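Fill-in record for Aerotolerance regulator N-terminal domain-containing protein.
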Amino acid sequence: MAFLYPVFLFALAAISVPVVLHLIQLRKTKKIVFSNVKFIQQSKNITASQRNIKEWLILICRILFITFLVLAFSQPFIPANTGLNADTRDVKLVLDTSYSMQQTKADNDLTLLETGKELASSIINLFPSQTYFSVFLNNSVKDQLQKEEAITQIEELSFVGNTFPSFFKNTKPDSHLFFISDFQKSSFKLSSLNSADSSAQIHLVPLESGAKHNIVIDSVFLEDEFLRAEVENKLHILLRNTGNNDVEDIPVKFFIGKEQAAVLSIDIPAQQKKEAVINFRFSKANSQQASISIEDYPVTFDNTYFFNLSPSNPISIVSIEDSRSTALSDLYKTEPLFRFTTYTSEQVDYSQVILADIIILKGVSSLSTGVAAMVANFVKEGGTVVVIPPAGTKAEGYTSFFQNLNIAATLQAANSQSIKTNLLAPDPANIFFKSVFSNFDPKMQMPEAVRSASWSRASEDILKYRGGSAFLSRFDRGNGQVYLMAAPLEQELNSLVNHAFFVPLFYKMALSSYKQEQQLAYMLGLNTISIPVNVSAKKEGIFKIKKDSVEFIPEQQLRGGKLYFTIPEAIEQAGFYTLTHQDSVVSNLAFNYDRAESELAQYTPDELRAMLGEKYKNIQVYDYSDNFTVKGEFEKRYFGVKLWKYCLILCLFFLMAEIALIRIL
């Protein structure tokens, strides 16, 4: 046993006061007049016996009262095996403010964040007044705080994204770090503790959640990425129940701008995913803010999914031909969703061609080295190319072109005397023909064509001759694709041009080249985002992300007509933002919270201890409990067992015993 204030032990000398008074009182005699001598003798014997016992008991009570009173002031304690360093002045507090802390406890309606605040305040009050505290405030640290200042900072904490791992890097030797969290399995990584000083004492304080379910909107996507005004489309919504209870009749609302465009109800079994589909018609000519919202409590941060709906730009089609023809121009120029341009093979504007979505090499008899290299590079960078062989005997430059694209294809001469073969009916289950046939007739009359090109090992054969050889195939090459046709488009060699199948076939090839310029939405925490911009790299000025009057400047790089940037850590709120350049709006952005926070599964204290094993001996894991239990466990481990309370109780007990002895005996 040791004493916190041993100087008070000198006060034990006060025990001599009741001892001296007791001895003096025993020597005093009291004269009483009696009429009967026999009665005097009897009274004298009884009184002396009782008086001696009473006085000695009172003396003992007084001595023990003074003794335990002095001990209470000297604050005795049993030292702990793991003592708190006397020089400890650095205590760090990390309260998890991630959105999963919106969950409530099992025994009350307080959120885990509110419970954590109470617990953090009680921990702060454990330490002496001369202790300095550091509090992790989302993306910053407040240090050198007194008790009252630290408690104030804790009370001001609010929900924000999960950024606590960076805090462990700042631990110092012999410091104490308290980490209060729900320890989600989806977000907590034991490796985040590796950056802490090995001599620092780390205290993991788990909080138990009482939440039984949580519905999360995982993502949304358009069935037809090519969004056109006044054209029917479908919005697919992926929802997930991360809890252990089934939920029924969850309302799912779809907003375009501030107007509710649709609503439906959905049931989701426990630990299951569900897809909801909403039919809608986009009636706006410009970009619109949109959102999906549900009603689910107590975790609400993932109840809304923000995204942008923007009408797609026309698909840019470039046709390179030996001589201008009308077959393709008549097909594409009648539709506003296409922008069609034709170049002769001898007059190609390379700077414009590489900006196209799809390039059609239509019957080019002599493919120059420059055009071949440009088109091959276009494919490798994600473009789409359609190769239609030339009529006649001349077909130069194709061998090296195909080799450059790793396509095993050969061309042979074809003329009006060549044998024509009918094509087989297409496979209606092929996704290429989706929405092409309203009523598919397997006996439909198909076009016929000669065969002037052959190949092998295609990614997919879209159409075939009756003999089984390929007429139209797709080759996937990197991020791009090549469509190769086996016959020229001249009418005497290929009746496809006059067939009803010609229009949907070339429409689908053009539409397959469309790539969404930017995603509908982005998750906060992504490393890099790329967005097409019409700004020259030589143009001065920086890109900024704005929300209302607040500006953020991301790390950025402009190359190849695209802006690459990272989402600044300072952006903590989900919602709509604008990307600007020199005060002009470049694009609209929608950010959503990381859905990993929506997973309710958490590590139990026993699981945390099992993860730590014997490697992390400086880390203490506390059981699920309230602030009083954690406080008591920490005191016992680092401050020892304090005995002053027991001394005070015994002090009061002997005081009451003295009073009872005086009145009763």
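KEY FINDING: Residues 37-74 form the longest helix (38 residues).
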